[in-house]
Amino acid sequence: MATDYIQMTVDVSKQTAVLRKDITETMSGFSAMAGAACKANALDAKTKEYIALGMAVALRCEPCIAFHAKALVKLGVTRAEYEEVLGVAVYMGGGPSLMYSAHAMEAFDQFSAK
């Protein structure tokens, strides 16, 4: 695949930095919500990232896939664990989720090789 997921996270981060400056209240609210949602409580951080990856695949958001793949690699997820998450996403989302799962595997491979 030709997509550079590592560069995608860099590029999107640059643009969200502009939004943080230009729409401060909105972005602060989003960041607070993200922090609260991702905080380990009854579910650990890895489980919450698995959910986010599955949703990113189902919603067909490549930048989301990139960021959640990066986070999962950083959390030490194994390839087998990652693939099982994608299997559930395919089960729930059918063919379109299968296509985006292929993108998610490429993102995993790129971040794992880094």
From TrEMBL:
- Pfam short name (any one): CMD
Organism domain of life:
Bacteria
SUPFAM superfamilies to which the protein is assigned, alphabetical: AhpD-like
Residue ranges spanning the membrane: these are none
Carboxymuconolactone decarboxylase-like domain sequence ranges: 25-106
Q: Which NCBIfam families match?
A: ahpD_dom
Q: Please give the name of this protein.
A: AhpD family alkylhydroperoxidase
Name the species this protein comes from. Martelella mangrovi
The lineage, from the top, is:
Bacteria, Pseudomonadati, Pseudomonadota, Alphaproteobacteria, Hyphomicrobiales
